[in-house]
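Input record, target 12 of the design panel.
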């Protein structure tokens, strides 16, 4: 049986003001082609289908079109089985809209209550159980999971003997680890029962989480709770699962889950899963730039070949082969450039002038028309970060001291000294003085031209404060 694992499509995401929808469309059309040519039996999408809980009309239109094609695909004479779960960017309710009306081969798994119940796929006599966890927000999912572990008539899905308090409750910590551990109780409990009946059952867990040991990028949304954003990899050891289809982190990467001694692990099944982050569909931050730069930014999907019958015989893992395929999105190469002005405008521009670039320019002076000169050399200079090298280290400490500064000119000349490492020249001082004067006279005009500076209209926040004080008085 062949499974394709992908995640983090983020349909509708923009990058530095650029609408990425056309590249996303290209990537998803490529995906449809691959499912056909590689004869994929099962498609797993592990969260962050949309970039937003309230996707735009255009984003919904793109997804619906792709979704309709996928839902109608036939591979090897059977319909393509499709399993989606929501990520931390999706709204589970919106993504799950219409789930009940869908075709039997389309599975939108958005309910926490259903995590202990896999989608079971049968292809040519082979059976695969896919457990699909939606993104588990510690605060939102904890009460639901608590109910599932306690159960009204005894525990519904707790694995093994759990430590329970006097009232029989399993304590779930308010953390990603706490809720993932609770969810895994349900998954492993159900899987152990099914394996007892059918040893030749392959099992995959789809999860949207940050598993420690993996490498994040700049384009995932922070999910830390109590300062912790990850779950330990050891939670998945000896769980009986064959593969973890992970979503959330945008870099495609392998993750090693070490098999543990029975005494050290929470679960005691014979198999420990292989695990991968498929990575996002496109690059969504400069931190995902490849070296050397590459169109498509090295994003990929995972192809998984399973052989559950052989695994049952040998007692090993059902994953026979794992391959990755580069996403053909045509997304321009992301490049991070760092150099002096001469380098940036010279050799680097010749090489990366057509790419999507983030440029750090090392400067000792502010050159005239800096941004225009860069834009003339680069078609897509999406980030420009001038960095001033202060030549005299002591100058860095002479940034205007607000306690001793007596007027605006003190502050401004202090800033010039700080950023350029020298005193302002006379012509610069006169420009600054004129600017200060202009602001002062504007203030007087706003106050009706007759008032003093103290009577000028205050900023909104200050105005509100004064009003409040007035009422209190
Ligand atoms: Mn994501």
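The sequence produced for target 12 reads:
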């Amino acid at each position: 049986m062949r499974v394709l694992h992908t995640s983090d499509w983020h349909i509708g995401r923009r990058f530095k003001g650029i609408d990425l929808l056309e590249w996303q469309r290209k990537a998803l059309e490529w995906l449809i082609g691959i499912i056909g040519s590689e004869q994929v039996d099962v498609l797993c999408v592990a969260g962050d289908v949309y970039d937003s809980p309230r996707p735009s009309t255009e984003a919904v239109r793109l997804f619906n079109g792709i979704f309709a094609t996928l839902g109608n695909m036939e591979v090897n004479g059977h319909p393509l089985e499709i399993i989606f779960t929501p990520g931390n960017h999706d709204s589970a309710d919106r993504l799950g809209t219409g789930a009940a009306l869908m075709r039997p081969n389309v599975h939108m798994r958005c309910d926490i209550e259903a995590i202990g119940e896999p989608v079971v796929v049968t292809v040519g006599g082979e059976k695969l159980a896919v457990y699909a966890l939606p993104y588990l927000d510690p605060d939102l999912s904890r009460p639901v999971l608590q109910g599932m572990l306690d159960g009204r008539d005894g525990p519904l899905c707790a694995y093994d003997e759990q430590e329970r308090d006097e009232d029989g409750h399993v304590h779930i910590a308010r953390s990603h680890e706490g809720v993932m551990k609770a969810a895994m109780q349900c998954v492993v409990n159900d899987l152990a029962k099914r394996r007892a009946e059918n040893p030749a059952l392959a099992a995959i867990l789809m999860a949207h989480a940050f598993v420690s040991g993996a490498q994040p990028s700049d384009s995932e949304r922070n999910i830390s709770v109590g300062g912790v954003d990850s779950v330990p990899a050891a939670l998945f050891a000896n769980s009986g699962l064959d593969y973890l289809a992970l979503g959330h982190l945008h870099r495609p990467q392998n993750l090693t889950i070490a098999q543990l001694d029975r005494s050290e692990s929470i679960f005691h099944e014979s198999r420990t899963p292989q695990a991968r982050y498929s990575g996002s569909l496109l690059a969504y931050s400069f931190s995902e730039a490849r070296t050397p730069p590459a169109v498509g930014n090295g994003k990929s999907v995972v192809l998984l070949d399973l052989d559950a019958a052989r695994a049952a015989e040998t007692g090993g893992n059902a994953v026979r082969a794992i391959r990755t395929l580069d996403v053909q999105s045509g997304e321009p190469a992301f490049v991070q450039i760092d150099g002096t002005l001469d380098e940036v405008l010279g050799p680097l521009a010749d090489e990366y002038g057509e790419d999507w670039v983030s440029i750090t320019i090392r400067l000792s002076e502010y050159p005239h028309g800096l941004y225009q000169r860069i834009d003339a050399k680069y078609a897509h200079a999406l980030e420009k970060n001038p960095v001033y090298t202060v030549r005299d280290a002591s100058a860095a400490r002479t940034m205007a001291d607000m306690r001793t500064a007596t007027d605006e000119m003190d502050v401004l000349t202090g800033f010039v000294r700080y950023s350029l490492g020298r005193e302002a020249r006379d012509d610069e001082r006169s420009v600054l003085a004129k600017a200060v004067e202009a602001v002062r006279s504007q203030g007087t005009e706003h106050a009706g031209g007759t008032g003093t500076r103290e009577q000028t209209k205050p900023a909104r926040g200050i105005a509100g404060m004064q009003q409040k004080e007035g009422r209190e008085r």
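Residues 198 and 312 are 9 Å apart (CA to CA).
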